[in-house]
Amino acid sequence: QMLRRTSIAVSYLAICMWTCLEAVPIAVDQTKVSRPAENLEPPKSVDTGLHYDRYLREVVDFLEKDPHFREKLHNTDMEDIKQGKLAKELDFVSHHVRTKLDELKRQEVNRLRTLIKAKQDIEGGRGLKIDHQALLKQFEHLNHMNPHTFEVDDLDRLIKSATHDLENYDKERHDEFKRYEMMKEHDRRERLKTLDEDARKKEEEHYEQMRRKHAEHPKINHPGSQDQLKEVWEEADGLDPDDFDPKTFFNLHDTNGDGYFDEQELEALFTKELEKIYDPTQEEDDMVEMEEERLRMREHVMNEVDTNKDRLVSLDEFIIATKRKEFLEPDAWDTLEQNPIYTEEEMRQFEEHLTREENNLIQKTADLQKQREDLERQQQQLNAQKLELQQAVEHMERLKTQRIELSPEAKGKCACGCSINVYTTDSWTWP
Q1: How many CB atoms within 10 Å of residue 95?
Q2: What does the alpha-carbon distance between residue 173 and residue 175 come to, in Å, rounded to a whole number?
Q3: What is the sign of the dihedral through the CA atoms of 110, 112, 116 and 118?
Q4: In a 3-state reduction of DSSP, which class is residue 419?
Q5: Which ranges form a coiled coil (predicted)?
Q6: Angstrom distance (rounded) from CA 18 to CA 233
Q7: 413: three-class secondary structure by DSSP
Q8: Range scoring the smallest mean pLDDT among 271-275, 279-283, 422-426
Q9: Residue 382, number of CB atoms within 10 A of its CB
Q10: 49, 9 Cβ separation under 8 angstroms
Q11: Angstrom distance (rounded) from CA 28 to CA 427
Q12: Which one is predicted more confidently, 225 or 48?
């Protein structure tokens, strides 16, 4: 449990997703036992979705291996951790941990530089000198001014960045889903424009038929309610619903046995409800929408049950929630088709944005075509000049290698009595 507490504390939101650590390390006398560096390998865990996920997980894992730091984490208030007060404890971790953290930071800086270079190449920046130091400023999870050693400021930045980014991660997923739905509707409307009147009418009728068919699903239990959990208890666990016991249910579905429901464990509880709405073999059911529904369900339960907002549900929080009126008598749960994802105004703005992007792409294509034609003309001119130069060189070579013959009529003597020979070629004569 202390290791679990440690994980939660280090980065508030990021660590709470890494619940696969299995045992509490045993503190040993470091003066008697030395741990080889090769044993410091980070465990496999759930990806947070952050672009610096691996760096974050490895830093946390190595810090947890330091007894002093682990003890401080265990006794530090969550708000103090988020404000960066714990980061100062980095000065007291063991030397081999600090050395490993330095290595991790150098690897992360090199990774970011490689990404920057790749992005520059893709955008046509080949041959340009890249100011990596300036571009690294956009990555706030480390101190880019010092790319070699892991310092207190690096830990402070990592904690705050992970906290902020993960708090906004679900929002970004919702935004992506909205764009997905609008693009799907845009494509449908564009396809209708290509059809004649009869085909368009049939397509519209088919579309409405699929919508009605999708909406005709069994009753959906409110996520996290007694009815919903009892259904899991009966159908997934094979137990008598009349014997439902919240504590037993919690222990059954706390799959890693750490005493908490994390986000993945919660989302697994909604599978039975989602199967009532979505079937991957049916045309009317979209699996992307299913994952959005799962996300909405998890967010709802977290908002209702996770009272300390650490993105984990403890056994105590769960038991308290099962005693509320909302658990026993929940409101109806509105599924996605009952909640408009976007307005017509948002759709209009989205299509205008697509039109602008399309026009920009057309213009760029035309510019590139013009550049290509200009380059082809320049190449033709260079080829012509090259041919002329080659012909001139060949002519000169012929002149140089041409046999020089002595002209018989040009022989004579100068005033001093010396012999003079006049040499001739086809066109030139000189003494």
Answers
A1: 7
A2: 5
A3: positive
A4: strand
A5: 354-402
A6: 26
A7: strand
A8: 422-426
A9: 10
A10: no
A11: 102
A12: 225
Count of residues making up the chain: 431
Quote the CA–CA distance of 265 and 254 in Å, as a whole number: 7
- pLDDT for position 305: 94
429 pairs with which residues across the strands? 424
- What span, in angstroms and rounded, lies between the C-alpha atoms of 12 and 166? 9
Q: Give the domain 169-342 fold.
A: Recoverin; domain 1 (1.10.238)
What's at 141, amino acid-wise?
A: H
Helix (H, G, I), strand (E, B) or coil at 430: strand
Q: Which residue has the tokens 């990592």?
A: 158
Would you call 20 exposed, middle or buried from its count of C-beta atoms within 10 A (0-12, 13-18, 19+)? middle
pLDDT at 124 over 50: yes
pLDDT of residue 148: 82
* DSSP structure class, residue 26: P
Sign of CA dihedral 339, 345, 348, 352: negative
| Tokens standing for residue 358 | 């399309």
Residues 22, 28, 32, 34: what is their CA dihedral angle, to the nearest 10 degrees?
30
Q: Is 54 left (phi over 0), alpha (psi -120 to 50) or beta?
A: alpha
Rg (CA), the chain: 37
Q: At what angle do helices 344-401 and 169-193 cross, to 10 degrees?
A: 80
Q: Can you tell me the distance from the alpha carbon of 210 to that of 216, in angstroms, rounded to the nearest whole number?
A: 10
Biggest CA pair distance of the chain:
141
Q: Name the residue ranges covered by the structural domains of the chain.
A: 2-167, 169-342
| Burial class of 42 by CB neighbour count within 10 A (0 to 12, 13 to 18, 19+) | middle
> What does the DSSP assignment read for 240-264?
-GGG--HHHHHHHH-TT-SSEE-HH
